[in-house]
Design brief:
heterodimer; A: alpha/beta; 5-stranded parallel sheet; 5 helices; 5 strands; globular; B: alpha+beta; 5-stranded mixed sheet; two-stranded antiparallel ribbon
Amino acid sequence: MPRLLLVEDDQAIREMMARRLELRGYAVTTAIDGETGVAAAFADPPAAILLDASLPGMTGWEVARTLRADPRGTMIPIIAVTAHAGANDKQAALAAGCTAFFPKPVDFNGLVAKLTELAGPPEPR
Amino acid sequence: VTLAGAAAIALVALLAAGAAWALREFRRLRRHAAALESERAGLLGTVAEKERGERALQRAVVALEGAREAAVRASEAKSHFLARASHELRTPLASLVGYAELLVEDASAVTRADLERDAGRIAKAGRQLARLVDDLLDLSRIDTTRLPVELGDVGLAAALGDAADVVRPLAAGNGNRLAIRIDEGAGTVRTDARRLQQILVNLLGNAAKFTRDGEIRVGAREERRGATRWTVLEVSDTGIGMTRNEAARAFDEFWQARPGPGTGAGLGLPIARRLTELLGGTIEVASTPGVGTTFTVALPEDGPGATPS
């Protein structure tokens, strides 16, 4: 079962996303801020990272740049999932090294399709 | 006639002719000098006029440039505001839509305990959205159509008491005491009761959010400044406080010194400021990190129209 790393500071959204992804058939590890997310990604690289932009401390885009600047992080697909939904926000996300961009509220089926492409298909139990 | 006589006559005639010529020449030169002088004055005038014109042109250019920059700033501020508003709306929406879809699509995997918590989160996100929409509408109404002001004689004891009642649960939840103090002489103020209530609730709510196990005080007193009597309202707390730079931004839209869950979208203080100005008053903040914050609202006691603004 592909394992995803979800970096999201909002508790309600983090728990909801993790449960929905698990119900679809992904294993999910969570991080509540950028620093923890980077450490988790380096310690045990996931199949893909779902990354919020507004995080306390390090921002999502700083997380993406940090990951891309390190050999352990260059290959991990990063999907930005953010309430910053403007066209320039998407550009900023891609410029920071994100692979894909989903505005909140997220199109969940679209997100699962993108995860299938980037991290492998879900494996429902 | 002797030769000498003739010579003398000739000399006199010569002298007379010379004098006449000298006089004519003197007059001509004087006229010429006067003409030159007037020409010089004219030229100087033209130069001065030209300089005045150039200065006026320069001033116009500077003014235009300023107006253009102000328009660009206003447009940028508007885009920035819309982007922030969109972000603030999308966060609770993400929670609301996500949990609703979870309950619909994965109903079979949802336990009784899940259901209660998830529905609770939907409700919470919905209420947060409703508050945000109210705040955004208030801001835009104040800015565009001028909110109607309904003046009345508002009793300060009742106004402060009502506002304190609204905030008391939040204040108590953070272990805070809430004290009201009304000085003698501060009886009533001619203002809009509903808007005053909104200002006080926003300021008290702010104090309650950023203070733990401390004290929140709200007070009213009368103050004379020149010929005008002012009702001065003070909301102070013993909370986390702000630095000078943070305090300077406290009234900026969407700005938060300490963003976090349950701190709101950063619209309470900008709304309080605009409402205060709408009521002809002023609002100020003084804060010390780790010591507390005091907001001071001064309203003209006889109503917004009573003071030259």
